[in-house]
Amino acid sequence: MDESLQSLVKHYESEQHLLKALLDDCLLEEDYKFAKYYRNNLNALQEMLHNLYCLTDYNHAEKAEALRMLSNIKANVKRSTDNSLNGLQEQRLNELNEKLSRLNKLPQREVEEKHDLQMQLSGYLKMT
Fold this sequence. Notes:
Elements (H helix, E strand, L loop, with lengths): L2 H26 L3 H25 L3 H20 L7 H19 L5 H17 L1
Helix pairs in contact: 1-2, 2-5, 3-4
């Protein structure tokens, strides 16, 4: 990943952490008006980060989806009374782990492609 894109991602990631903390504070204080404001800004920021990640990794969206599904299955297991996996959940976890492993082995975007996508993104940023 080139330096300017990497610094932009780091900046947005730090903003994301800040917005999450502000949102949590608002929810603790039951200040739902500002919580909505921070949630809306956090959603927009997460969308921007997703777009930046996709610039450098063809498979970012698929990886993110697989990680989300893994997280959901693990959360369901924690909520269950016996904390054990049933056969279907265990099979799904194995499939998702294999998919992530396969996706992580695939190549990243080439430098020329990154530049073209960055130009497209800069046009998009100017429109918003």
